[in-house]
Amino acid sequence: MMLCSTSANAQVSPDDEVSSNAIIVTAKSRKETLQEVPLAITALTSDDLASAQIRDVRDLQKVTPNLSLFAGSGRNDPSAYSLRGLAPNTSDERYQGISVFIDGVALSGQLASLDLENLQRVEVIKGPQSANFGRATYSGAINYVTVDPSGDEVTGFVKARGSLMNSAPDASYYFGGTITAPLVKDALWASVAGSVFQNGAIAKSRDGGAPIGRERTQAVSGTLYFKPDPTFSIKLRGMYQHDRDSVAAQVVEQPREWLQSGIATAPFARGNGSFFPKYLPDPDIDNIGTSGADGYARDRYFASAVVTKMFGDYELSYRGGYVNESRTADAPNAPRASGVGQDKVFGDALANDEVTLRAASLGTFPSYEKFTNTSHQLMLLSPGDKPLRWRVGAYYFWERDDTGFSSFATAANPSGRTRDDRLENRAIFGGLDWDFTQQLTLSLEGRYARERIFAPACPDCAFYPTATDYSQVSKDFSPRVTVSYKATPQNMLYALFSKGVKSARAGYVTVGGVTQPVYADPEKLYNYEIGSKNSFFGGALTLNLAGFYDEVKDQQLVSTLERTIDGQTVTVSAVGNVGSSRILGFEAESNWRVTPQLTLRGSVGYAKQEFTNKTPILISSGSTAGFPVTADGSVVLDGLTQANVPYWNGFVGGEYQLPEVGGFQPSLRVDGSYRGSYYATLSNTVKVRSAWTVDARLNLTSDMIDFALFGRNILNNQRATGSGLAGATASCMFIERDTATYGTNQQCLYASAPRPPEFGMEATLRF
Fold it and tell me: Which part of the chain is the TonB-dependent receptor plug domain (predicted)?
């Protein structure tokens, strides 16, 4: 595995890709070696993914500096990616800072259930990627590159994996495989893959024994690859996923529990005698209630086409994709058991009338979301072996997002629809790389995009029925300017400026009985970066560094705003451009082949985000806990940092090849990933403690068979993995009657639990 970042001048031929040990990336639309690209990229091959036990997008944060992923409600809601300290402040897939691509084609939605077994590599590209990848990449992009079917014979593999976890009621398993066959000799190939897997439940609910934390997926995909000659190819892919997950391992921790456990506490501002713990305690997964909720269901269809044609040394390509996803969620309003005698802490307190059960916390809140999108890109590349190289292209993206809550269904609105939003993005883009000398290269890239968010009239929609169509248009230019200097064939420096844009957003308010749209302008990220990429000892050691300073303008946050609508000034709660931030950080990644048998790997990332807006704003009362008291209830974010985003993360690992035994090559790998402490509340009053997670794998490899024994989280890290999306603060389910001890504004805290230690075995048969 190589973990790197840097500069630019030679395109790689397909033959080079096969014969070279260097990792190939396509972060700038050309095949180039990782060490030659002036960008901060963590790239992992298929072997890296397997040996490091990277099974889904959540595991990528273990080995990627400055990548964190909050998954509060399990993999149902893992899209709150944070890269380089910048969180999106929403789990809405349309407004993320990072997007995921398959072969350069956008794949929207919640993506933790993607099967990574059939990938050639994964590229995590850091910093604004709007100039190349387009919308929703204003802090980075993740590109999954699949294998092109090839060969003259039928080939494939089957894989089985099984494991058990400490005190867990379920086993985990994986059964899957791929078969590839030539349909027309040297011209047409087909590949079909399928898998069934389960991440077993880690606990049972207190109010009925329902599984907690179980995740199940059935997936099938197919690829047709047509390449009749070296100048022309068509790659068609289709995929279907069927996900069924239980209620997630997320609890609401109560003040009584903090006192009983002896954790240090302190009163918080606006608490009227109430208090918070100094740090978020480890979640108790054996104290979760589901209120009969079913959990989460998702069905996703994805299709893509990649077509390339060479005209001499020029390449014309088309990339198109289609996504259709339908999702339902049925989660408890509060994940605690509400019956007398059920909750371990409050079951008897209910019977003794020591607490009041908060009515709003009872029951479930079922919802649905359906979205469809399509994307199309046409691009022309100049020859890659010239001192002056360029690319130019056009892009189109369209999406519809339909959401609702069944509890708000009526005869006129049987589904309980609340929104029916559309989005359309049209863009032109281009890039120019100019080698002034063999050492010095200037790169100029940019994208001009016109995006329209709109919604048709929806007179029967719940919450905010609309009688007329609404739309809003934004236009933005996203440039990237890079200067790279190759001091020696093994050492390179680069400096760049780039801009990222996060889409405009729409909300709705009711004024005088009429629903009106309220818009937030696009959020903008300005990134200033320097980096160095270095190879030593004939490439045995790589050391790559990147430092960055970012400014965020027009940051989108939910707040209470004064708006003038139809000549009337009103106070509304909606997403607005009320924030600004600065971020300072660095990344270091290294790979060292110490001996032919021993390889060491490591990385470290630091990103400190601070709000810089000094203007007081009004936010929801639940999020104000811990802020200084003000006459109008407003808060000032200046100097504070977002919740759920650590300043530090790191990774260290080693792999040692043992002497061959009976035709098998044994190897032992041990990895440790570090996640620094972070704030669990927006007021920065409660922290989540730092944590190490250690994995190990003993692998036996032969020409046809791989067998492995593995352990995940073997040291039993039980630190919380996150809090609520906007912070841990939550309304309490049980309100203490003893206000002398607990105060009158009692606040509780969300805490999401990691999976416990897991031990198992895996076998792969190749044919």
Answer: 34-140
Q: So what's the pLDDT on residue 358?
A: 92
Burial class (CB in 10 A: 0-12, 13-18, 19+), 16: middle
Q: Which pLDDT does position 10 carry in this prediction? A: 43
Contact status, residue 447 vs residue 134, Cβ threshold 8 Å: yes
Torsion angle (degrees, nearest 10) of CA 285, 288, 290, 295: -20
End-to-end CA distance of the chain: give it in Å, rounded. Answer: 25
491: amino acid identity, one letter: N
- Looking up tokens 């897997």, which residue turns up? 197
Return d(Cα 259, Cα 743) in angstroms, integer. Answer: 13
| Separation of alpha carbons 566 and 512, rounded Å | 10
- Which residues of the chain, if any, have pLDDT below 50? 1-20, 78
Strand 734-736 relative to strand 119-126, pairing = unpaired
Question: CB–CB of 60/140 below 8 Å?
Answer: no
Distance (Å, whole) CA 156 – CA 135? 36
Which residue pairs, CB below 8 angstroms and at least 24 apart, start in 485-489? Answer: 485/7, 485/439, 485/440, 485/441, 486/7, 486/9, 486/438, 486/439, 486/440, 486/441, 487/439
Name which of 281, 290, 283 is nearest 204 in CA terms: 290
Residues 138 and 525 sit within 8 Å (Cβ to Cβ): yes
Residues with Cβ within 8 Å of residue 634, at least 6 apart in sequence: 616, 617, 618
Burial of 662 (0-12, 13-18, 19+ CB in 10 A): exposed
| CATH class of residue range 24-766 | mainly beta
Cα separation values, 146 from 58, 237, 420, 640, Å = 19, 10, 33, 41
Annotate 532-560 with DSSP letters as a single string. Answer: EEEEEGGGTEEEEEEEEEEEEEEEEEEEE
- The angle formed by the CA atoms of residues 75, 167 and 62, to the nearest 5 degrees, is 40
pLDDT at 107: 86
The one-letter code for the residue type at 375 is: S
Contact 36, 7 (CB under 8 A): yes
Pairing of strands 734-736, 355-357: antiparallel
Contact predicate 83/67, CB 8 Å: yes
Q: How far is CA 354 from CA 67, 160, 558, in A?
A: 44, 52, 36
DSSP track, 3-28: EEE-----PPPHHHHHH--SPEE-TT
Tokens of 721: 């993995």
**Rounded distance between C-alpha atoms, residue 143 and residue 385, angstroms:** 24
Contact (CB, 8 A) for 1 and 601: yes
Q: Which two tokens stand for residue 475?
A: 């236009």
Following DSSP, what letter does each residue of 582-618 receive, concatenated?
A: EEEEEEEEEEEE-SSSEEEEEEEEEEEEEE---S-BB
Concatenating the DSSP letter of every residue in 204-241 gives E-TTT--EES-EEEEEEEEEEEEEEETTEEEEEEEEEE
**387-391 own/partner pairs: CB under 8 Å, 24+ apart:** 387/434, 387/435, 388/432, 388/433, 388/434, 388/435, 389/11, 389/30, 389/432, 389/433, 389/434, 390/430, 390/431, 390/432, 390/433, 391/29, 391/30, 391/430, 391/431
Report how far residue 456's alpha carbon sits from residue 262's, in angstroms, rounded to the nearest whole number. 55
Distance separating alpha carbons of residues 213 and 508, to the nearest angstrom = 34
Rounded distance between C-alpha atoms, residue 237 and residue 224, angstroms:
7
Ramachandran angles phi, psi of 526, nearest 5°: -110, 115
DSSP state of 332: B
Structure-token match 């009711």, residue found? 510
pLDDT of residue 563: 67
Is residue 4 a contact partner of residue 601, using CB atoms and an 8 Å limit? no
